């Protein structure tokens, strides 16, 4: 698309950037009925800002799935911590919740902290996008933070960029971000033995062409081909750059919020919240592209 056409499309959006290095709110749209031009504008804004927030939406599950499909085919949700799929008849839908019904959690991740991660990067072809819709939220706590991994990569010292240019990292498939062991996995604390998928540490985004640092999650990560101690030291060094980066935007949820993130160039984490309060969010994921070996 040429620049004037792109600018004209984006002019139709009421967009407020967070000012934090990623994240923008789109104001005044009803996602159940946006036309193709408005969707294209939203998609361009999403590639530019990495994470979009759209408030005051009234999406039921079918409408959330239908809107998500505008980004591409959807992945099936991972199996819940109890071994069940979440919602009968809607296998695309994953429930993030601490709420218990009949002694069983209705969703995953509990009420604790969820550590920095990229969704499902322990599979060969991770989802390119996640859409998370808030149904019930506590008055305080449970905020979700996002970090811009293009910016983290750009800010690395040149020597470190050169060192990681052709390295691959194993993204662990043992634990989810809440620290729960995934279904069917026997936990191992040796990163070399743990199940997972190998991905290049430097990922070139197929739509923007920009390079991002691709870490996935810290626990059980392993840089292929290195001695374990060397892998740990290099990973610690890279994660220090994430922790010290200023490129973080934190979202405080309200019911009716939809947040859409680019799972290829961001990571996210969640704060803990009071276990006595209720938090229910529904998530879909859009299939990604196969990554270069
Ligand atoms: Fe996540």
Descriptive notes:
The protein is of the alpha+beta class. The protein has a single domain, classed as Clavaminate synthase-like (Double-stranded beta-helix, 4-Layer Sandwich), CATH 3.60.130. The protein is built from six helices and 19 strands. The strands form five sheets. An eight-stranded mixed β-sheet has the order 1-2-3-17-9-19-4-7, with helices on one face. It has a four-stranded antiparallel β-sheet with strand order 8-18-10-16. The radius of gyration is 19 Å and the shape is globular. 39% of the residues are buried. The mean pLDDT is 93. Fe (ii) ion binds next to loops.
Nutshell version of this structure?
This protein has about 290 residues and is α+β, with helices and mostly antiparallel strands. It has helices at about 5-10, 35-50, 60-70, 150-155, 160-165, 230-245, and strands spanning about 15, 25, 50-55, 95, 100, 105, 110, 115, 130-135, 145-150, 170, 195-200, 200-205, 210-215, 220-225, 250, 260, 265-270, 280-285. The protein has a single domain (about 5-285), classed as 4-Layer Sandwich (Double-stranded beta-helix), CATH 3.60.130.10.
Which features does this protein show?
19 strands; 293 residues; globular; binds fe (ii) ion; alpha+beta; Double-stranded beta-helix; 8-stranded mixed β-sheet; 4-stranded antiparallel β-sheet
Specify the number of helices: 6
Helix content: 10-25%
CATH topology: Double-stranded beta-helix
Task: Supply the CATH class.
Answer: Alpha Beta
List all distinct small molecules, including ions and cofactors, that are bound in this structure: fe (ii) ion
Q: Give the overall pLDDT as a whole number.
A: 93
Q: How many structural domains are formed by the residues?
A: 1
The beta-strand count equals 19
- Tell me the strand percentage band: 25-35%
Rg estimate, integer Å: 19 Å
Shape: globular
Structure class = alpha+beta
CATH fourth-tier homologous superfamily: Clavaminate synthase-like
């Amino acid at each position: 698309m040429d620049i004037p056409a792109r600018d004209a499309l984006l002019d139709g959006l009421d967009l407020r950037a967070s000012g934090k290095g990623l994240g923008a709110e789109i104001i005044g749209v009803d996602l159940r009925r946006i036309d193709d031009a408005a969707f294209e504008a939203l998609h361009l804004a999403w590639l530019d800002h990495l994470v979009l927030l759209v408030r005051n939406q009234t999406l039921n599950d079918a409408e959330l799935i239908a809107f998500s499909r505008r980004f591409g085919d959807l992945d099936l949700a991972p199996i819940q911590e109890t071994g069940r799929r979440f919602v009968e008849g809607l296998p695309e839908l994953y429930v993030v919740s601490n709420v218990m019904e009949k002694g069983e959690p209705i969703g995953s991740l509990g009420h604790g902290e969820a550590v920095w991660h990229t969704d499902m990067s322990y599979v060969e072809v991770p989802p390119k996008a996640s859409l998370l819709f808030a149904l019930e939220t506590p008055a305080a706590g449970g905020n979700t933070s996002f970090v811009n991994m293009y910016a983290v990569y750009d800010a690395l010292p040149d020597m470190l960029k050169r060192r990681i240019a052709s390295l691959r990292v194993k993204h662990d498939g043992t634990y989810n971000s809440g620290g729960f062991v995934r279904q069917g996995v026997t936990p191992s604390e040796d990163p070399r033995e743990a199940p997972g998928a190998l991905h290049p540490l430097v990922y070139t985004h197929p739509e923007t062409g920009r390079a991002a640092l691709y870490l996935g999650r810290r626990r059980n990560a392993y840089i292929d081909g290195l001695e374990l101690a060397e892998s740990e030291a290099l990973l610690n060094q890279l994660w220090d750059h994430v922790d010290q980066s200023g490129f973080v935007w934190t979202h405080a949820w309200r019911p009716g919020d939809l947040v859409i993130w680019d799972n290829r160039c961001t990571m996210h984490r969640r704060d803990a919240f009071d276990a006595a309060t209720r938090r229910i969010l529904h998530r879909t994921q859009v299939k990604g592209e196969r990554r270069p070996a």
